[in-house]
Structures
1.
Amino acid sequence: MASIPIIPVILAGGSGTRLWPLSREHFPKQLIRLNGDTTMLQETVLRLSGLDGVTAPIVIANESNRFMVSEQLRCVDIRPQSVTLEPFGRNTAPAVAVAALQALAVHPAAAILVLPSDHHIADPETFRRAISRARVFVAQGSHVTFGIVPTAPETGYGYIKRGAALDGGDESSQCPCAIDRFVEKPDRATAEHYIESGQYLWNSGMFLLDAAGVLAELKHLAPDIVEACERAVSDGRSDLDFFRLDPTAFRACPADSLDCALMEKTHQGVVIPLEAGWNDLGSWEALFQVGAKDDRKNVIKGDILVHDVKRSYLHAESRLIAAVGLEDHIVVETADAVLISPRNRVQDVKHVVEHLKATKRPEASVHKKAYRPYGATESIHNGTRFQVKRLVIRPGARISLQKHFNRAEHWIVVHGTAHVTRGEERFMLKEDESVYIPAGVVHRLENPGRIALELIEIRTGSYLGEDDIERCEDDYGRNSIDS
């Protein structure tokens, strides 16, 4: 079995906002450190370490997150087979079809391990054993999904009803089973019935599939998806470290989940029960449940002062939170927003995000700190005709050669050494030195050193938007509307 490679397919293109204000449209939860020192994307790839026959992953991402995805993988020494960019979201069936096509180009007998990048698994070793068990069924032509043994009557998950037991077990055991049917998210009473029956598992959205086999069956069950994906891959192009699917072909692809397009229709489906401390961390309540508690059952992260607070989740990003007399509450602070909610109302955060989007407020989509391929920028203050930002440039990195038509910039080095291009001039700046860049002058900033370069940037002018930029040259293939 081990001679057949398993190519992980990491689905990293989501833009979930249920964990607002930490998670934003352009900074989704899989890119955040929520429950440890690594992000959820990094955890997803690292938990596969030690699993026999696993190769470098194929990562499916989107345009806006591409540099953060690439940088986070680099930080944990993961060199992917491909970071494939979807020009539009088309759900999981097209993403899996694209990945299967790419996997077959790597190895004609490859299996693909499809993993969302935003799941928490407390017991990676049990998870790895389940994958090893699934290989046997994939080698026999089955399509395997992993069903989570439920611990409560959750209404936020889909369920899988177990069919006949396989491997000689009985239907009440933890043995692999045929799939009787998939069911949508139930109401509370139905979920309680599912738990009592012992016949239902939570639908995890994780799969182990033979790449050739899944493509062959999708060609029969969803030919339009496979045809569009074949064109999108064949007409796609490499761009630096990324592979861009052809947008015209991919736009024509029907949107569908792998469950609907394949797993609900196939006769080859197998579900393997999994008890490994799985959680999709889809809400603040979920983070409260998995977090380390103090003696009053609180989860506390950041600079927090509490008095008579019980069973609450408090998270501070940029300042002190002082709380008195709270019970069963969520308090989350970022540099530009604070969320306060009873724990039993956290699902309603979606209404806040909907309002922010409807009123076109930036807090719906971006943070004050924005990650760039060269480092990061952070908004410190916005005034009338001026802005103050903090810039961080990674060692060896540089911003694009650029100019602005409506603003001037003043750079002050506070840490490290900067190499500056200003028109025809080239010179170095050390700490406590500064330079003025007039509007219309071509300029570039780069870090020639071995430590991060930090600057304060003061913008002045009649228009200070990020789209006031003309890139003359860029190491990262961006155009003037790219961040």
Note: The mean pLDDT is 93.
2.
Amino acid sequence: MRPFLNLPLSLVLIAPMGAFSAGADQPSAPTSQTFVYKTVGDCAIRADVYRPGSAGPFPVVLWIHGGALIMGDRRGISLGELNRYLEAGFIVASIDYRLAPETKLPLILEDVADAYHWVRLDGPRLFEADPERIAVVGHSAGGYLTLVAGYRFQPRPKALVSFYGYGDIVGDWYRRPDPFYLRQPAVTREEAMAVVGQDPVSQPEAGNRRGRFYLYCRQQGLWPREVVGMDPEKDLAQFNPFCPIRNITRDYPPTLLLHGDQDTDVPFQQSAEMSAELKRVGVQQEFVPIRGGEHGFDRKAEDPQTLHAFDRVIAFLKRVVAESSR
């Protein structure tokens, strides 16, 4: 059996909640309700909603999974992270969205915006959501979508939390062959295309090897073309609407950025530059560098830096969202 290539930890550990709750000393996974918040053709796009035990209305964490916009689904949230939000009194709405390359970025952004509006409009009736107290939280590509939410969603979210996200999708790190991934065995275009299809998909089948397509994109420097559907070599300016760092104004929501300084997938500098730009414009922001942290550092659930990082996240969300005026 050929081993899985050395993709970053957060791209490999995409599993149902039960995968993070095994063992007698760990609590069982919280109960969720699954909703279809949107249907496109035959593709039903779902959200899992977890509620605290008390009475609402509740502030909401809209949680967006990572996976380079190519892989993953709503079940990727770890049990430890989920429980921290629930214990802090937040509903968690973990969402799917259509994946690339079958669906390109503009339509992926429509899905995420539709999920946000579904929580705002239907959430109060369905699960006692407070529509005025919504934070968007995402990891990696989900962190990127979180940062996009800061200028594309109206009304704007109350707060954003980006774990190792990125503000620029056409930097050399994404539109040139990547040295880290070039050290791994080459993936041919034929092999890459064999693991994706034509029809929209929002929840890949178990065992799907879509990571091969991602590895091909990184080795060839083709992610912007394959995922966005436009060629940066022809017109870089057409990507401006999709780059958070070029769309920050004083109205941007309070933002918390977390990033490992040894990240080999999304450069640490992506969050450092976002932090600097937010500060320059005058947006409330916090930046938590994780010393020695790799991509997906938060999967090391008992690491002191991970625990400290989540303490910062919960304190930020309570101060900016949960305790804000309704």
Note: Confidence is low (pLDDT under 50) at residues 1-26.
3.
Amino acid sequence: MKIASDAWNFFLPLAAASIFFFYAGIPITGAVTVVLALFVLFFFRDPSREISSNPAAAVSPADGTVARIDHDWYDETTGEKRIRISIFLTIFNVHINRFPVSGKIVSMEFREGKYLAAFNHLASEENSQSIVVINSDYGKVTVKQIVGLIARRIVCSARQGDMAVKGERYGLIRFGSRMDITFPANTELKVKVKDKVQGGSSVLAHLVS
């Protein structure tokens, strides 16, 4: 399985530390660092996904559980009442993030904020986050990468003016997090609260022209 390149910043020091501890005759500490090194590879795994060919289908930007759905959410980024889906990711989920739709990226910004636990719904507004707005053929779709209590680092390659391709990788959040997606109010949802979703392969909604 492919491993995200960010993994090596954590894996290599841990692997070196484990060799040192075993060589120094401290096997218990060495074993702990080996377990941590293997967990890093597990966390940064990047599996292939089959992406829906339906142009109206919006796919999940991340693996996780649908934690909340708001049907009358005011999105200050677009100035509209929209549908919002919140996805909670544990440290055991794949953390590669993917574009939910294809279209032109009309804005991308990073907002500094708090580090509330990602399962806390206040995290959507108060935590540090990146906000990407995509102008698709079916209207604007916004997607947020939101840090959590443990996750303190957002990686985002999306840039204003670039073209987003549905299902294509564009970033990750390190070690537990949350993602919010907002759709036009007339969007037909395909998920409900507590559903498990996979980034790229799970269809969250069908957009209406």
Note: The mean pLDDT is 91.
4.
Amino acid sequence: AAADAAGRVLMVGHTFEYNAAVRRVREEIDAGNLGDVLQIISQRLNLGQVRTDVDALWNLAPHDISIALYWLGHDAPKWVSAQGFAFIQQTVADMGTITIGFETGAVAHIVVSWLSPDKVRKVYVIGSRNMIVYDDVSPDAKVQIFDKGIDRVGASGESWSKHDDFAEFQLKLRSGDLLVPRIDFQEPLKVEANHFIECARTGATPLSDGISGFRVVQVLEAADQSIANGGIRIDLEPYSDGEN
């Protein structure tokens, strides 16, 4: 609100939204190639750096929350449930999980930890039609698109939708091709900085604007509330800019 009142451009540093691989996944989702997004399963694990001023959830999860919200676009987060575990320091969680429920029924499950022997930066996007793996650590296969899924097949062998009238059906595993698209990768921080400069020059609204930053912090604060209350679901208040 202060930025709007002052006529200034406000942008937050969600660098992964400027990552070419992350953007490719968004393109696949927007094109409908995955069908309905059902689940996002994110793992951000490493050995350290153990900190005392912030826990692992606030340290690592903002990246994955921003990615999930970016991928799901206009699908608003509805509730949050979280757990935190402190093994090294009694009052600072070094491992935790955050689950975000969305209006459409999609769920994002985020796992973060400072206590992993391997560096893992991997996200699974499970669609009703296809699936994608985004692996930020992989040097040459950051995005993998799988023609895999579980189909409902009617008694006649034809596909059966959950929207059809009642009919006998069976669940059939489908495993098709694997596509590893070529991605022209640019340094995300450079892309982000150039985008900010362009928005400052033109007055355009940044991709990662103040509302984007608010929504990520809203999820993290709800996660804190959930942890403090035994992991219960915390409903999120819809964002209002005062005009809607």
Note: Strands lie at 37-47, 77-85, 95-102, 107-113, 115-127, 131-135, 143-154, 169-179, 234-235.
